[in-house]
Each structure stands twice: as structure tokens, then as C-alpha cells.
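Holo prediction. Input below; ligand is adenosine-5'-diphosphate.
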Amino acid sequence: MSNITAEAEIWAKEKLGGDSSGHDWWHIERVRRLALRLAAATGANAFVCEMAALLHDLADEKLFGDEESCLRDIRSWLAERNVAESDAEHIVDIIANLGFKGGGRSGLTTLEGRVVQDADRLDALGAVGIARTFAYSGWKGQPMHDPSLPIRTSMTAEEYRTGKSSAYNHFHEKLLKLKELLNTDEARRIAEDRHRYMESFLRRFEAEWNGTDAW
Ligand code: ADP
Ligand code: NI
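Structure of the complex:
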């Protein structure tokens, strides 16, 4: 591990260590590991992927408010450590364009950007993805499920950010769509099983909710 990735790790732990919204340090560590694996499979630049993965949630407006000022902090942090200007710009550009923001629309154009986006999305799937969704909903004060809430299958960025949802609806509003939005073959391969697991969880959840499993 280079010194800079070790320092980025310390910074991310400092900022996200106490998080209970599903964006804690261990989310970062899983995304970093997945990003390195996808980088190896695709030939993407491992340093850029690892750094972007380590810092990717430090400009999330859900957690830290003003995204622009967070991105400026990341830029200065990289400059202070003499990260090559082209790498630094690339890393910041990935972080700025990572979010889902309702539509899956994305300004990511480089292989490294696509790799980190896939890694972040894979961590929203499967058993860990299910756990994170319920953790996030509790953190945000949303219900786990409320059958009277409409499922919004297409939303503007504004609606996605501010609208009322639930953990259950989030599967339909975002998580079940992610498989189709992945960029790399390796991520699609990993997503298969995670996607199936979520579908089977939802079937079970619905059966228990309705009591159809009980007799
Ligand atoms: P990322 O790690 O990509 O920044 P998000 O910030 O979109 O992901 O979400 C973090 C976690 O919280 C994910 O597992 C996601 O599914 C979940 N989550 C995000 N928005 C909602 C929501 N409105 N309701 C329930 N869970 C959510
Ligand atoms: Ni993330």
C-alpha cells in the first residue's frame, strides 16, 4: 500500500468511522476491495480506482452537506500530498459523478470511473445491500415498509433526494435496477447472485408480511 492510500484510509476512517447510515468505514473497505478486483479484471489504473473508492463518500451531500466545498477539500488534500495533477483531477471527477441521483444518469466516462461506480453499486446489492438499506432507512427516519406508500419507479433527482420512501420501496426504486446499470462484465457476473438473493428476500418478506407463509 502506498503512503497516500494509507493516509486516505486514515482520513476516511476519521470522517466515516461513527456513521450509522450504511456509509461507515467498512462500506469503504468493501468498495475498495471490489474496485481493486474490477481494476485487475479490466486493466484500469489501480491507484486511481483505489483512491477514488477510499474517498468516494467524503463529498456525499446526504452526510456532509455542501458537495462543492467537500470536493474542494479533497482537491487540496490530494495537492498537499503531491498526487499528480491529472490523477487528482480524475479522482475528484469520479467522486463528483458517482451518485445514483434518481435516474442512473451519470457523467462518468473513464474506465476507472466505471469501475468505482460498479464497486459502489455492488455493495448496495445482496445480503449486505439489504442490511444497508434497512440501516439507512432507520437513520433517515423512514419506515421499513408501509404498503400505502406508492412505489415511484421513475423519479427526478429532486424527488429521489426529498421524497418519502421506505426500505421496502427502495428495492423497487433503485436496487433491483442496478444489475442492468453496471458497466463491467466482472461486476455483472458478481451481481447475478446478489440480485437473485434480494429477489428471494423480497418474496419471503412479502409472504411473512401478508401471513401467507404461516398457513
Ligand atoms: P452510496 O454508497 O452509493 O453512496 P447511497 O448513498 O445511495 O449509496 O446509499 C447508501 C445505502 O443506503 C445503500 O445501500 C442504499 O441502498 C441505501 N439507501 C439509499 N437511499 C435510500 C432510501 N431512500 N431508502 C432506503 N435505503 C436507501
Ligand atoms: Ni458508497
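Residues 4-210 form a domain with the Hypothetical protein af1432 fold (CATH 1.10.3210.50). That is the main takeaway for now.
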